[in-house]
Amino acid sequence: MLRQLVPNINIAKANNTDSDISKFYNREVSLAYLIIMVALYLVATANIGFFRQALAIYPFADNIGFIVSLTGLLFGLMWLLFQLLCYRPTAKVVLVAMIMIAAICGYFTDAYGTIFDRDMLINSLQTDQAEAMGLMAPSFVIHILLLGVLPAFIISKIRIRRPTWRRAILQKAVTLILSIALIAICLLPFGDQYASFFRQHKMVRSYTNPITPIYSVIKLGTDYFDELRRPDTLILHATDAKRVAPANSTAKPKLMVFVVGETVRADHIGLNGYKRDTMPLLASQPDIYSFKDATSCGTSTAYSVPCMFSYSNRANYDVDTAKYNENVLDTLNKQGVNVIWRDNNSSSKGVADRVILEDYKTPEVNPNCDIECRDIGMLDGFDTLVKSDTTPKDTLILLHQMGNHGPTYYQRYPKTFETYKPVCMTNELSKCDDQSVINSYDNAIRYTDYFLNAVIDTLKPYQQDYDVVMVYISDHGESLGENNIYLHGLPFNIAPDAQKKVPVIIWSPNGNNIDADSLSRMTSQPVSHDFITPTLLNFFGISTQEVASAPTFFKSTN
Question: Which of 403, 404, 401, 441 has the alpha carbon at shortest distance from 419?
């Protein structure tokens, strides 16, 4: 009898086990709940490399709140991303793909420190079978099976609940709002730390998994399509451009120095009523015109600099196609103006690709270098630029400053310019009080004042032979901690005025055939980067229908 009961008991246990498994798989799960679980799972298992990098910069004991915020931000971003990608018919496929991508990428990141950016994806696509097999190891198989295949199998067996379409829309809307709210909650209390994190530690962000691999795939695809739509030839502008003969046959040639400033905001300029005299040298110069209401084209150098010299205005400018279009420097060059771009910043952003370009970021070229090469070095050999020909000719010299490039404002000037103290001596702006950040920023402006004053003094001896003028315009502004926002680069429509309002300063001495009265009146009018192209053409006496009715900073009278 006992022998008969034992098999029956085993059969009953087996049936119960099957029943439990069946209940697990037959249980319906909300898609919103499943997305949350997968996002949490990937934060915990696929981002070891990311947290290792973050903790190396922000030790947990000293940055508990920030690390917790960073974890919440990563989860919030994944939650938002999966919400946007997952809909009931395709949700399992998407989530399984996310898990497998994260498992594969996570292994190589943890084992080899690999970052799956665009270049790495191209490299992976070009890897042959032998190279790929050389990367396979037992640990790789175990990692993929445990962290990829197993959770993917479980997801494939889960039944997703079928809500009504109205309820599905409501759930999607609520979860999207909650994920965005979570991101905001994580960002706002630590805005100052995130400012330096996003700017200074871009490499750490590249370890986020699977966000970075997904972004890289999208970037690779968009780059491919951009390449397909790239024009075979440069798009021409101002094809009807022509030189307007001066009314006076004894008119002198034109000489302009155009200074492209970096990261200077208008409300920190002493000439504009700032409480500090940040430009004492320019304030003592005659014939200085400072514009009080000037707006930039964008909030970053890469966006603004090409826009400044384009034939588009801010409303229709496209940064992705700017490099395929001629700009005003091309037109000036074609019309016989001697155009030279000297750069002490990252680059001309494509603006000076077809004119003379000189790099002043190295001691081999720039004679004024200490911890970095100084803007004043770009004035070295000025005579050779202006007197390259025996006969004076129209000349435009553009000087692209390092200026106030952040966050290490304290490095943007020699120690002798450290007027305001104490100064923030780190790129982690959140570790400094607001006043020390402002002090270092304002000291950098005083160095720009010294540089611009030197430009003017360099130009003065040429007044006898040229109509001379200096124009200084910053590419964009800068946030200095207001509302916990630092640096720049916010989308233009939501960026504060600190990032969009820039200084425009013009030195225009008497006798250079620029209408001083109209220039003076313009200083109180709203102006923008859109004025640059028509102003340059007007000054050098070049007309074209493309900017025939566009406003200018000043009018040439000859």
Answer: 441
Distance (Å, whole) CA 141 – CA 139? 5
Overall number of domains in the chain: 2
Residue finishing a domain among 209, 227, 245 = 227
In a 13 Å sphere around the CA of 249, the CA atoms on its Cβ side amount to: 0
pLDDT tens digits, 166-218: 988 999 999 999 999 999 999 988 887 887 788 778 888 888 999 999 988 88
Instruction: Give me the residue label for tokens 């220039």.
Output: 519
By residue count, the chain amounts to: 558
Taking the model in full, what pTM does it have?
0.76
Asked whether residue 319 falls in the same domain as residue 219, the answer is no
Residue 517, judged by CB atoms within 10 A of its CB (0-12, 13-18, 19+), counts as exposed
Q: Is residue 445's pLDDT more than 70?
A: yes
Q: Is 112 part of a structural domain of the chain?
A: yes
Of 340, 343, 314, nearest in space to 329 by CA = 340
Determine the structural domain holding residue 483 and report its residue range. Answer: 258-547
Share of the chain above pLDDT 90, in %: 67
Pull the structure tokens for residue 197: 């994190």
Which tokens in the block code for residue 386? Answer: 């202006």
Return left, alpha or beta for 468; rule: phi > 0 is left, psi -120 to 50 is alpha, else beta.
beta
Residue 478 lies in a domain: yes
